[in-house]
Amino acid sequence: MIALGTACVSAADDSYSYSSAEAGKLWKVTASLRGFYDDNVNTVSSGTGNRTSTTGFSVNPGFSLNWQRDSTTLMFGYRYSLLYYGVKPVKNVSHIDQDHMLDVALTHLINERYKFSVSDGFVIGQEPDTLRSGDALTTTQRIPGDNIRNTGALVFNAELTPLFGVEAGYENSLFDYSDHGAAVRSVTVGTNSLFFVTPSESGTSDRMEHALHLDGRWQWRPQTTAILGYKFRMVNYTGNEVIAITPSGSTRYMSNTRDSRTHTADVGLEHIFNPDFQASARVGISFADYYNDPTSPSSVSPYVDIRATYGYAPESTIQAGFTYDRNATDSVGGVSATKGLTTSQESATLFASITHRIVPRLFGSLTAQYQDSTYVGGTLDSQNERYLLLGLNLSYKFAHYLSAELGYDYDNISSKTGHSYDRNRIYLGVSGSY
Fold first, then answer.
1. Is residue 14 part of a domain?
2. CA 40 → CA 43, 78, 81, 393, distances in Å?
């Protein structure tokens, strides 16, 4: 009702650029109120008959700071989300979920040749696409509770000569899930007892990831940079729970069985076609060692990272990319005598996002991701899991500080592990900013 009333009295010039009004602003406050419909809030498998739909609403206030002084830039952003579900999701203690998202970034130019940047992203949430830290999804399920993901990074750039430079960096990611406690059970078959374990999300996914990288950069052409890079990644699982057991029950595998060290070497190019069109590509090879489990063989896999950004019209942008890399997974499967546990996935991920100014007051956006993942190790070895995520959004700006939005999100997960499902979400709301 507020939005419709504003539409009647607003007489702003349609040639007004909303993004230009934000340029140079030190701080910004935002808030939105949405009503939504979710047809599979528990992300249960298709055809089980236990599909639960619900309506609800969300309140999302936020604050951001963009401070620039000479050679230093500081950006800070915080967003809080309160979601009320008409039907309480499974394992939720109440009808309410609360999400927190905090982002901080600092960049400082020491002089014309040296600079460093520090950043951190902290999330408390339940949705898999919110909790991930990279391009690939590591879990397919919505997970109730105050689940934490924190990713921090430090990067240092040095221009050693006009043509040669180096970049060194460290990234740390922490994952801590609320779901604790593995369930070990036995089934009697004849005179024998067979043992099974249902691991918790903490047991399979609580972890600390460390990544160090060093890149040599050569200014091959005025608009083209060649890169030779090396990355070392170490993953330590911290759940300290049973995640798998042999059928006889003689051997139990703990969370840290999947600890790993990975070495990656790659070459790449970055090219600026024009101020509005930039692209980069890196290809290489990775070697992973799961040193705590002698039955899980070390493996070699390709590494690919291709990205492009194109501003094709005022306030209209396309971003797209493709990656192929190894990532963590919350699926463990059974123990294989020759291939140990399921240690990870190799994922090919294709993603794109488009923001388009349809008319001066109407904006549309589309996000899409397709991921094809293959399990490595265990009884799930070589089996595939495919994800398709789509998001559509329309936003109409009644005035500079007030807009209405309509959106639709679609998830489709196809998996051999029993996690297959589809999910449709629709929302309608009003947003304000100052």
1. no
2. 5, 28, 20, 20
Kindly tell me the burial class for residue 320, based on how many C-beta atoms sit within 10 Å of its own C-beta (0-12, 13-18, 19 or more).
Answer: middle
Residue 203's closest CA among 180, 221, 219, 186?
180
**Confidence (pTM):** 0.89
Domain holding 339, by residue range, is: 2-8+28-433
Reading the block at residue 83, the tokens are 């979601």
Cα–Cα distances in angstroms (integers) from residue 70 to residues 85, 105, 111, in the given order: 47, 16, 11
Q: Which two tokens stand for residue 382?
A: 């070589």
Q: What is the CATH number of the domain that holds 74?
A: 2.40.160
Residue 251 lies in a domain: yes
Residue type (1 letter), 174: L
d(CA 147, CA 37) in angstroms, rounded, equals 23
34 within 8 A of 58, measured Cβ to Cβ: yes
Number of domains the chain contains: 1
Burial of 250 (0-12, 13-18, 19+ CB in 10 A): exposed
In this structure, is residue 16 part of a structural domain?
Answer: no
Please say whether the beta carbons of 140 and 417 come within 8 A. Answer: no
For 427, residues 6+ apart whose C-beta sits below 8 A from its C-beta are 34, 35, 36, 37, 58, 405, 406, 407, 408
CB within 8 Å of 5: residues ≥ 6 apart: none
Residue 18 lies in a domain: no
Q: What is the mean pLDDT of residues 282-306?
A: 90
**For 198-240, what is each residue's pLDDT tens digit?**
899 999 999 999 999 999 999 999 999 999 999 999 999 999 9
Give 5-9 contacts, CB < 8 A, sequence gap 24+: 6/398, 6/399, 6/402, 7/398
Task: Identify the DSSP state of 143.
Answer: -
Helices (H) and strands (E) in the chain, counts: 4, 22
**How is residue 330 written in tokens?**
């919350």
Beta strands in 206-292 (DSSP E): 207-221, 224-237, 242-245, 252-254, 260-274, 277-289
- Dist. CA 193–CA 197, nearest whole Å: 13
Structure tokens at 433: 């900013």
Mean pLDDT of 310-324: 96
HSE-up of residue 99 (Cα within 13 Å, Cβ side):
21
Contact 282/304 with Cβ under 8 angstroms? yes
Burial of 426 (0-12, 13-18, 19+ CB in 10 A): middle
Tell me how far apart the alpha carbons of residues 356 and 404 are, in angstroms, rounded to a whole number. Answer: 16
